[in-house]
Description:
The chain is an alpha/beta fold and 338 residues long. The protein has helices at 12-19, 23-30, 38-50, 57-64, 87-102, 119-124, 141-148, 173-186, 201-216, 231-244, 257-269, 287-291, 303-318, and strands at residues 69-75, 106-112, 131-135, 154-157, 167-171, 192-195, 223-225, 251-254, 280-284, 297-300, 326-328, 331-333.
Amino acid sequence: MTVTAERPIRTLKDIARLAGVNAGTVSRALAGSSLVNEQTRQRIIDIAAEHGFRPNLMARRLRTQRTGVIGIAVPLGHERRQHLSDPFFMALLGHLADGITERGYDVMLSRVEPDSDDWLDDIVLSGMLDGVLLIGQSDQLEVIEAVARRYRPLVVWGSALPGQVHCAIGVDNFVGGRRAGERLIARGCRRLAFMGEIRTLELIERHRGLCAAAEAAGLAPPLQLDTHLASDIMAAEIATNLDRVAGQVDGIAAASDVIAMATIDALETRGMRVPDDIPVTGFDDLPIAAQARVRLTTVRQDLAAGAAAMLDALFARISGEDRPSVAMEPELVLRDSA
Length: 338
């Protein structure tokens, strides 16, 4: 007697043969279509599972004209020495990646040091992505605006200006900077400083908010102490700044939590007590802000809510809908440093 080996299950037609339906029904059932009745759909799913069947991913992508991949890019035109290991990037990336994979998509991550105006075109026109998320506007506002006029599934973490084309999700940085300034002024500070650079839109807005708080209180404009976000040069710049303005400043609003923590370390090295001698505020409310030895008073950005809003906007845009920019309300979180 001749024994014939069972034919392997490799295609939709093989599943259809076993289920007694046509290949189109199998395709619709495995895609979750409501056009297939529940009993038939479950039978098809059970047969596919029993035989370890996986639909050909490339074929599915060709049919749907979707790649199943979302790109996340971090443009660093303003700060080429900054790394993805920066605590802010890691926190927001984690929320975004979790949300993307929960939707059944893969993630492609890029750290970009723009060397020409077509860097974003290279990403969105690569043919590998269904949509793109940018973490930060850097100093690339004009490039982002130009691409957003012709590429819809693009959402950016950052600030929204009047008349802005691209969809930006983020905190109201101006209001956040103003609240940090108001807190320092309420503490009795009269000679304020902003520890940070003002080459990126978000930090420009934080600095403007601090200046507005000082002006409203009748104080002199805050000193702007240029400080990079790159960890390898940050501490040295903060030290130089503090030495240069020694005795001229009695309250510091830092551009980020990381800068604030490094500033506190530098002040204490110089025999200054925080907040007794100089109060310091941060910006972000990263987990390290509450865990630091001198816990940070800071302006909170709700990164979990922000990431969810970015993803909602992106997938709506992928589906052809329009979504406007969102400026979330910042929250001043009072802790030890101010």
